[in-house]
Amino acid sequence: MKVLVIGLGGVTNGGKTTLAEKLKNMLPNCDTISQDDFFKPESEVETDERGFKLYDVLDALYMDEMVTSIRNWMKSPTSSGLVAEEPQNTCDSLKNVYILIVEGFLLYNYEPLNKLWNRRYFLTLPYEECKRRRSTRVYQPADTPGYFDGHVWPMYLKYKNELEENASMQIDYLDGTKSQEELSSYVYSDIIQELNKLRE
After folding, report:
1. Residue-range domain boundaries for the chain
2. Terminus of the chain with fewer CB atoms < 10 Å: N or C?
3. How far is it, in rounded angstroms, from Cα 174 to Cα 177?
4. What protein family does this chain belong to (predicted)?
């Protein structure tokens, strides 16, 4: 049995969750884990001097729990209860391969997670498009006026710069303005190549 752990990181509202779900339906024995499920309760998230809740930082998440969840899945993917029915066209050679897609906005800036990835993807968006998409979403707690410009976007740039400065980190940057069909087709082909390498 072989496991493949795929990171699908990137900007808020970049299409990570939609892409993860699309890929889950396209790939055999595939599960997803969402980083959003590891947010601390609002009462435990720090507030800065402007009154902004600091959600877009690692301290707002139970990262250790996330690592544990991924490791547990890797040890026993079939008992996770998550593995979906496999697509009809699965070729025999992929029957004993299990794929986990982990999606979230802060995947590659936490060292313990970086030991786990087989492939890393990062969705990007230009500022205007990201802000437009963000304004159409309803969050709990809701974004306060100025939150996107005062916290969300600066944190995205900070963490993205950290990745770009880390020369050893292999990341495939994806353009989040492309259609979901284009993105899923590209990532799917890439993962299939990775699976073929595993089998060799």
Report:
1. 28-80+92-198
2. C
3. 9
4. Belongs to the uridine kinase family. NRK subfamily.
